[in-house]
């Protein structure tokens, strides 16, 4: 069961209630502050300074590497944790042009050690992203560099009943122009990831040319798509394949979203009813999500390890002893799905009791997906097919700026800033957590961009390889000949979405 906890007397700070369910609720910063004045919105400088103070206080309390960042030290500005009455501290905050600059300068070697903490000035977008809601035409694609600075977008999958599906877009399609402009490494973000509601794409195709290298060919065909706010069901495909005396469950799961936990449980009920003997879990495009959803999925796959240790958390040196004292650093396999407060059982988990698992991965498989792989490897045989994963073994929490005390505590109405800092590192039951370079596959396999196959079909190369491994029957579906790496993955369509490549509590 997901745990409850209360942080008390945090290094001399006031009592902090983090809500009933730490897995499903944001963290409240450990400072009870009143509005900066009666009408904070009337004084932008005061609001700006207040937000900077919120950022420093939140990172000082929760940031995983707080002890490694000199400017976040408790006594950086005096003998105690500062407030805005401290002239040295106030001058430090005022030295930064805006809150975002301050935030990224306080991180631990951002881009090298800390690759994933982020901040937003509109937490509504963040909250929607955690529910699977984003601006989209319904296609998921990867962006690849070619011919020096050219960029081609290659479609990985299309959501059912979306505008992209209606326009005939399918897996493996590609495009090189948006609204008449040729994509390149300098403009692709502004053309594709800046929130436009309508896009006209010029389509292309990818073939294997001379010297066994990919070549991009423009077709001249154009497609106009409208982007709207869509809620993506992360369960893209679930089916049972009977092959070689095995009943193989196939699940393509693209994000760990709590709102779909019960739907996921229904999938496993069907797998169980149909007598699934083996499972292929397709996480190749899954950037992560909710920790509790990862635990639920792992419990559905197994079931025989109920209440045994699934993962263990390592917080910063200030929080770790507090978390250990209240029993809040261990996560266990479960047999029930709980509501957002962790107090009411919503359903019994449908478990398969498997002792082996086949997982499909790529260089876009991250965070909560890696947590499932690493967590299960401590108990069962996990065969990983595909590419090395991202290597994100840390989790984050949402930190809001609350004002008031007790039940009168509310989000500060003067702004909508919120942080998503990394706050803990996750190890499996055997203590293994060292995979920042990614989890390497048991069987390496790359997608053939000139013939990606149809997801869920037995002939799709990744699934075909998994079926071959399960049944022992050789498949000719996957490409044995390696194509030269003439296209480099540089980004994807979800990189602009808050919460992507995330593992959060």
TrEMBL record:
Q: Name one GO molecular function term.
A: serine-type peptidase activity
The Gene Ontology CC terms held by the record are:
outer membrane-bounded periplasmic space
Q: Residue limits of the PDZ domain?
A: 132-207
Which superkingdom?
Answer: Bacteria
Q: Which Pfam families match?
A: Pept_S41_N, Peptidase_S41
The cross-references to InterPro entries, in alphabetical order and at most eight, read: ClpP/crotonase-like_dom_sf, PDZ, PDZ_sf, Pept_S41_N, Tail-specific_protease
Per UniProt, the keywords (alphabetical) are: Hydrolase, Protease
Q: Which GO BP terms apply?
A: proteolysis; signal transduction
The protein depicted here goes by the name Carboxy-terminal protease
What organism does the UniProt record list as the source?
Capnocytophaga haemolytica
